[in-house]
Each structure stands twice: as C-alpha cells, then as structure tokens.
Amino acid sequence: MILPGEVAPAHRHVSSAIRFVLDGEGAYTAVEGEKAYMSPGDFVITANWAPHDHGNTSHKPMLWLDVLDFPQVNFFETSFAEQFASATQPTSRADGDSLSFYASGVLPDGAPAGLNRSPVINYTYARTRPIIERMMKAGDVDKRHGARVRYANPINGGPVLPTMGANLALFPKGFKGEKYRATDGTIFVCAEGEGATTVDGKVLEWGPNDVFVVPPWKHYSHRVGKESVLFSISDRPAQEALGIWREDTPSH
User: Fold this and answer.
1) 42, 69, 102 — which closes off a domain?
2) Which of 51, 70, 102 is the last residue of a domain?
3) Is residue 121 part of a domain?
4) Shared domain check, 193 and 87
5) Residues of the chain falling short of pLDDT 50
6) What SS3 string covers the chain?
7) Dihedral of the alpha carbons of 116, 133, 18, 55, in degrees to the nearest 10
8) How far apart are CA 222 and CA 53, in angstroms?
9) How many Cβ atoms from other residues are within 10 Å of residue 185's Cβ?
10) Is residue 160 located within the same domain as residue 205?
11) In a domain, 241, yes or no
C-alpha cells in the first residue's frame, strides 16, 4: 500500500517484480524512465535490475499485489540491490509509451530481437479486459481455464519475464471447470465477480481482491455463479527453462 504523498525511493534489484493493482487511482510506478499511472486490474512489470520508484499523487491510498522471484534468485545466491541518490528517477518517456511502441503489432525499427523480458511496463486492464470478453463471445472458452490470455513479451512471444508468467481469465456465468494440475505454484487474484476454487479437495471461496494460492501438483478446478475474472501468476517460465515443468489433465 502506498499512501497519498508517499514516495518509495528509486532503487533496483536482481529479483524481478510485478504489481497487480487492486484498489485506488493516481499512484504511479516509474520504470526505466517511464512513469506509469495505475488503475485497478493493471499488470505492471519491473524486470531484473530495472530502476524503479513508486509515488502517490492522489488523495487516497493505492493497494496492489507484489509478486517477486526472490526464492529463485536466493537459491542461486545472486541477490543484489542498489539505492539511487535521488528519491525519484528522471522520466524520459510518457506514460504508455512502452505499450504503444511495443504492444500494438509493430515494433520500433531497430528494437532488440532477443530481449528475454517484456519491454512493456503496464499491461492495462482497460486494454486486456475487452480481449477476453471477445474470446468468450467467440466461444473460445477452455474447459479448465476459461477464456484466458497469456501476457506475452511482444519481442519473442514468450513470457513477460524469464522467471514468471501471468494470465488473465474470464469465466462465463455458471462456469464449472474440469480438474487440472501442473508443477508450477500459482497465485490467483480475483479482479471481478465471485466464485470458488477446489484445491486438493478443499473449497476456497473468493471475491473481489481476494488472493489465493494453488501449490504445485495439486488438482484444482474453478466454478463461478456470475461472470468473473481471475488474474494468475506462476513460476512456469523458470520451470520450462530448466525442463522440469509438466501438466496433468484427466485425459492423461
């Protein structure tokens, strides 16, 4: 949570971080020279060693979920951090520049072809939500995951970060999902609606802004009464890079 008038001083660290905004308007995260103002449902990325600071110029608190890959970095004993001399970093790009430059089906001429993390700072909810709505209307609804998109690195089509990957899923009214399990541990956040997820026989009921976790290799299934949206993030990209990720479905 960042309160009105607060600033989290500029710094950077080896661990990658994401923010999924839960409540509030008018606070920002500045990353690599771009100050991204945030709204509920926005998915903001701070990549490995990217300079960043946070501030709240509004009159109400802002609340978001932070997810970092510290356990993986600490396993390799490679965790470093650096504090900057000034509290905020100079901004050389306008809010939304990275989304316009890299996530519109075109790329700036000369953009790196091998970047292994997304150059997009903020995948806004206002832009992503209509896509899953359109998928649902087209009937593109997975029996386990709903109408789901994967946040992608527009440079190579891969995950947004080499260690963490995220999804946004829309579940139509009355959805009753089939069981699924995989080796990645997954954090879920309810962005809209309400429902329940059965994890290894235990029912977890959830509503707006609730956060719940599905541990690795535990069967789970979602069900909703009314139309609902879940954000999720996991360590699947890191497991895939190491060749240890696997999934299991009732047909396997």
Assistant:
1) 102
2) 102
3) no
4) no
5) 252
6) CECCCCEEEEEEECCCEEEEEEECCCEEEEECCEEEECCCCCEEEECCCCCEEEEECCCCCEEEEEEECHHHHHHCCCCCEEECCCCCCCCCECCCHHHHHHCCCCCCCCCCCCCCCCCCCEECHHHHHHHHHHHHHCCCCECCCEEEEECECCCCCCECCCCCEEEEEEECCCCECCCEEECCCEEEEEEECCEEEEECCEEEEECCCCEEEECCCCCEEEEECCCEEEEEEECHHHHHHHCCCCEECCCC
7) 130
8) 36
9) 17
10) yes
11) yes
Q: How many CA atoms lie within 13 A of 209 on its CB side?
A: 9
33 and 136 inside one domain:
no
Residues 153 and 241 in one domain: yes
Determine phi and psi for 241, rounding to 5 degrees. -65, -30
Tally of structural domains, the chain: 2
- For residue 200, give the CATH number of its domain: 2.60.120.10
Q: What angle do CA 14, 19, 20 make, to 5 degrees?
A: 155
Query: Residue 111 falls within a domain, yes or no?
Result: no
How many angstroms separate the Cα of 50 from the Cα of each of 82, 84, 144, 178? Answer: 10, 12, 35, 39
Report pLDDT for 250. Answer: 62
What range does the domain containing 38 cover?
7-102
Structural domain contains residue 120: no
Query: Do 130 and 98 fall within a single domain?
Result: no
Q: How many CB atoms lie within 10 A of CB 242?
A: 8
**In this predicted structure, what is the pLDDT of residue 251?**
55
Closest CA to 69 of 235, 242, 245, 236: 235
What residues contact 138, with CB distance under 8 A and at least 6 apart?
none
- Distance between CA atoms of 118 and 159, rounded to whole angstroms? 8
Do 196 and 239 lie in one domain? The reply is yes
